[in-house]
UniProtKB/TrEMBL annotation:
<dbReference type="GO" id="GO:0002098">
    <property type="term" value="P:tRNA wobble uridine modification"/>
</dbReference>
<dbReference type="Pfam" id="PF01926">
    <property type="entry name" value="MMR_HSR1"/>
</dbReference>
<dbReference type="InterPro" id="IPR025867">
    <property type="entry name" value="MnmE_helical"/>
</dbReference>
<keyword id="KW-0460">Magnesium</keyword>
<feature type="binding site">
    <location>
        <begin position="250"/>
        <end position="256"/>
    </location>
    <ligand>
        <name>GTP</name>
    </ligand>
</feature>
<protein>
    <recommendedName>
        <fullName>tRNA modification GTPase MnmE</fullName>
        <ecNumber>3.6.-.-</ecNumber>
    </recommendedName>
</protein>
<feature type="binding site">
    <location>
        <position position="86"/>
    </location>
    <ligand>
        <name>(6S)-5-formyl-5,6,7,8-tetrahydrofolate</name>
    </ligand>
</feature>
<keyword id="KW-0479">Metal-binding</keyword>
<feature type="binding site">
    <location>
        <begin position="275"/>
        <end position="278"/>
    </location>
    <ligand>
        <name>GTP</name>
    </ligand>
</feature>
<keyword id="KW-0819">tRNA processing</keyword>
<dbReference type="GO" id="GO:0046872">
    <property type="term" value="F:metal ion binding"/>
</dbReference>
<keyword id="KW-0342">GTP-binding</keyword>
<dbReference type="Pfam" id="PF12631">
    <property type="entry name" value="MnmE_helical"/>
</dbReference>
<dbReference type="GO" id="GO:0042802">
    <property type="term" value="F:identical protein binding"/>
</dbReference>
<feature type="binding site">
    <location>
        <position position="460"/>
    </location>
    <ligand>
        <name>(6S)-5-formyl-5,6,7,8-tetrahydrofolate</name>
    </ligand>
</feature>
<dbReference type="Pfam" id="PF10396">
    <property type="entry name" value="TrmE_N"/>
</dbReference>
<feature type="binding site">
    <location>
        <position position="256"/>
    </location>
    <ligand>
        <name>Mg(2+)</name>
    </ligand>
</feature>
Amino acid sequence: MIDNQTICAVSTPLGHSGIGIVRLSGPQAVAIADRLITTSDGRPLAHQPDRRLVVGRVLDGVSLVDEVLVSVMRAPHSYTTEDVVEINCHGGIIAVRRTLELALQNGARLAEPGEFTRRAFLGGRIDLAQAEAVADLISAKTEAGLRAAASQLRGKLSERILGLRNRLADCLAHLEATIDFPEDEVPQLEGGSLSARLQQIKLEIEELLQNARGGVLYRDGVSTVIVGKPNVGKSSILNAILSEPRAIVTEEPGTTRDVIVESVNLRGIALRLCDTAGIREPGCTIERLGVERSEQAIDEADLVLFVIDSANAPTAEDQRIIAKLREKPHVIVVANKADLKPDADLDPLGAHLPGRRIIRTSATAGDGIEELEQAIFDEVTEGAAIAPEEILVTRLRHRAALETARAGLENALRAQKDRLSVEFVALDVREALDSLGEIVGAVVTDELLDRIFGEFCIGK
Ligand SMILES: Nc1nc2c(ncn2[C@@H]2O[C@H](COP(=O)(O)OP(=O)(O)OP(=O)(O)O)[C@@H](O)[C@H]2O)c(=O)[nH]1
Ligand SMILES: [Mg+2]
């Protein structure tokens, strides 16, 4: 909960930069800043106008620390809803750190990660989904991720959730009235029967869940691993997707020894692409370690690109990898070196990997790479076909809450159909209502807040 202390942190990365900002928030923010800053016109910050930049000097006793620009944003019209002071120092480590230390010596305490935004939430300026959007905006990996975060910060998701909650609350009020009064004395629900209304809300939650599939992708990206036996062209495929010679390619099997990780923006989705050492019976210790890492990378990946040499028949090494891929939900087979044997019969291979897409490529000629990218996109979006501008739900936390809400409504509808007593129906509707409340923070615990804001950087 909000304590009464004034918090303080450096809000910009420490290092060589044009400016570095020290930020204070809390009831003593202005008084503390006044103890370390002398403004150019001599008037204390307490008497300076709101939200204007003022020139001043940070003084450590009599010695000058920095010439600064200071702004005061008074409660409640500030980021945190409290009094906020921002001190724009010259960038660099020493002046910024000294200014922070002076603020601490004068009564502020160091802010926890995300504590400024936590105060904005506790002060009621933004809800929890919007607070999470602040973190997502900072860590967005693609423009699509950024747009989704910005729309969530503007309250698009919250609006939808609040609308659903209001309608569910009406249903619950109706149910509770029928518990307390005989049914014929309770006024009819507007907009259809109770079950029709619950059904409709459930449908809209399902739409949001459908949307979440794409949203989680745009926010978190996809961890993708390129595997195969040595020399099939894994590194060449990596280079072709990146359009740059990132990994060393040679005709010698066993060229790649360690996992190489690169990020690429594939149609708005952040792909974390790992090239690995070819998997075979290892000859030496280095190779054994490389193969172990490749196998571990398969375990951790969301998507596997399994590269084979389409010019040569599958070998025992291919079979060994195929066995490892059986459990993975998302696998694309890349039949590389198609230039060497364009009409290679891939059916026998397909029989070992039922249901997997097979794409023929020639990494050296660049053929099939676009088809491969399309296949990757289709595989990870599972045909959800979500335009980035329509993304509403991007966090797993929100998805889980929506799933609980849907289950609650399913139970409520079943209880009603089975003519169970109204109390049971009401209980399930209440559960759905609370789950939706968790998304916007109408229902929270300190533990949840610690988890969410712990992911933030200090100073935000
Ligand atoms: N003809 C042809 N040669 C290819 C193709 N892709 C890769 N090669 C060649 O195959 C050899 C091996 O390529 P790499 O990309 O190093 O293969 P790798 O799977 O990463 O090999 P390791 O790292 O040793 O496991 C190189 O000589 C490449 O030029 C292709 O599509 N067609
Ligand atoms: Mg390689």
